[in-house]
Amino acid sequence: MIIESVCNKYSVWDIIKLMYFLVITKLIYPRQRIIRRPFTIRGGKMIDWGKKLTTGVGCRIEAFIADGNSNSKIHFGDRIQLNDYVHISSVKSVTIGDDVLIASHVYISDNSHGSYKGDKNDTSPLIIPTKRPYYTAPVKIGNRVWIGEGVIIMPGVTIGDGSIIGAHSIVNKDVPENTIAAGSPAKVIKHWNEITQKWEKS
pLDDT digit string (tens) for 141-169? Predict the structure, then answer.
């Protein structure tokens, strides 16, 4: 049944590539489900991979030291699925919970070149962008979160358990648990009602 299902879903060439990725994954990342290549890692010693990770092609995971900060960390929970071309960047802390689904072309970052909040810590536009001090704030994504295609998650954001982020949203503020948020910037548009067991407009 499993072989029949795979044959119905994939072409012969896709099956050959799938088998190749499976073999390479088990040799290099034995705790993970399947890592498709190309797969770029920066600062691997600062990344906690969890178990049973699945990736699409072209994913880029970076934990690096900047401005003297040596505490960068990316933590993956278990059974996470990253689709094609997901980019995760950490100078401080990015935490992703268990059973999270992330669609393609998603960018998650706990840092930016400078601060632009409109306060005394703002970065001058006279400074070359590559020379601006990093602004950093931890990112936390809870369990069972679904992040749609092309989403950008900005520094300092927490997304609660069970929430959904609509495609192409820019998330620059916290999203409560068990809600649906969408837009640019993202706003909560629905919440899960435990009593009625339905998604209701917020």
Answer: 999 999 999 999 999 999 999 999 999 99
User: Rounded to whole angstroms, what are the CA distances from 140 to 18, 90, 92, 176, 185?
Assistant: 31, 12, 11, 12, 18
In a domain, 120, yes or no: no
Domain, as residue range, for 14: 1-29
Sheet containing 198-201: give its strands across.
54-55, 81-82, 101-102, 146-147, 164-165, 179-183, 186-193, 198-201
Distance CA 68, CA 65 (A): 7
Residues 88 and 181 in one domain: yes
Which helix (H) or strand (E) covers residue 152, if one does? strand 152-153
| Catalytic site positions | 113
What was the pLDDT predicted at 67? 64
Q: Which portions of the chain are predicted below pLDDT 70?
A: 1-8, 67-70
